[in-house]
Amino acid sequence: MKELKIAEEIRKTAGNPGKGVHVGIGDDCAVLTYDRRKYLLWAADMLIEDVHFNVKSAGYERIGRKAVAVNISDVAAMGGVPKYITVSIGIPPARRVASIVKTVYKGINKVCREYGVKIVGGDTNRSEKLVIDVSIIGFVTKKQLVTRAGAKEGDLVLITGPVRDGKKAHLDFDPRVKESGSLVRDYRIHSMIDVSDGIAPDLGRICDRSGVGAVVSADSVPLSRGLSLKDALYYGESFELLFTMSTSGAKRLLKDNAFRREGCKYFVIGEVTQKKDGLRLMDEKGVETALKMRGFEHL
């Protein structure tokens, strides 16, 4: 994917981030030194008209909600709790600026109240198309931090779900903060990512950072009504949590009645393998084929 290559090039040219950075470029959030118990999580996500949404079909309120929700999801993917955001908005000058800002912020304020997030700053400017850029700060207890880099050979690959249809639900999804908090509190999660670009490329990111391979079982991927396996693998925008953990831990998780009472659902969809095996898909007959690192293209 073009985006992955550009991110890697930026990481190389940026150089050593310094002493206070625990995790830099290459994960859902930057992880910064904060105090003896916690790390500070810092992320940013930009939504652009006609790339991530269509104004006529989406409406400004839902666009505002999504702009914050995708950032909350990034914090959840690291095992953290979201706390503060800044919001910068670019608006075409021919449109009703005051009305647009008011309606966008209606969606922003609603999701912020739902997840206990405070707006602490931002900017407004003129642009050719509507652009909303949100930066988020969260916190995670040090022992509960999860990155993309911890997957181990023999781990099982799990996902929250059923996997949502990103084409239909990408504006209205609920970030999996509750699920993330329960997982990192009660289990040893080895690696985790939120599915923004598709199961294939996002699992590929875990494999790349962890130095492993993985095989996904086609008939184990839980699909919401009407969603094709192809879209689950390659379209993305479902924002489910994709994670790895030990076999014994996964068995205990799937038997945990407390999660059922909380409405959390987890599904085993594959296994972590050796790096040389690469990323593969196994069909119902046991035949394996390569999974390509392609998904939703932002560039």
Polypeptide structure, described:
By secondary structure, this protein is of the alpha+beta class. The protein contains 10 helices and 13 strands. The strands form 2 sheets. Strands 8-10-7-11-9-12-13 form a 7-stranded mixed β-sheet. A hairpin with a 4-residue loop joins strand 2 and strand 3 (38-48). Helix 3 (60-76) runs parallel beside helix 4 and helix 3 packs parallel to helix 6. The termini are close together.
Parts with pLDDT < 50 across at least 5 consecutive residues:
none
What is the fold named in CATH at topology level of the largest domain? Phosphoribosyl-aminoimidazole Synthetase, Chain A, domain 2
Write out the strand line-up for the largest beta sheet, numbering strands in chain order. 8-10-7-11-9-12-13
Q: Provide mean pLDDT, rounded.
A: 93
CATH architecture of the largest domain: Alpha-Beta Complex
CATH superfamily of the largest domain: PurM-like C-terminal domain
Give the oligomeric state: single chain
Q: Would you list the SSEs in sequence order as H and E?
A: HEEEHHEHEEEHHEHEHEHHEEE
User: Major beta sheet, specifics?
Assistant: 7 strands, mixed
Can you give keywords for this protein?
single chain; 299 residues; alpha+beta; 60s Ribosomal Protein L30, Chain: A; Phosphoribosyl-aminoimidazole Synthetase, Chain A, domain 2; 7-stranded mixed sheet; 6-stranded mixed sheet; 13 strands; 28% strand; globular
Secondary structure blueprint with pairings:
Blueprint: H1 2-14, E1 21-23, E2 30-33, E3 38-48, H2 55-58, H3 60-76, E4 81-91, H4 97-115, E5 118-126, E6 131-141, E7 156-160, H5 166-169, H6 177-186, E8 191-194, H7 199-210, E9 213-217, H8 229-234, E10 241-245, H9 247-254, H10 257-262, E11 266-273, E12 279-282, E13 288-290
Parallel strand pairs: 4-5, 9-12
Antiparallel strand pairs: 1-2, 2-3, 3-6, 4-6, 7-10, 7-11, 8-10, 9-11, 12-13
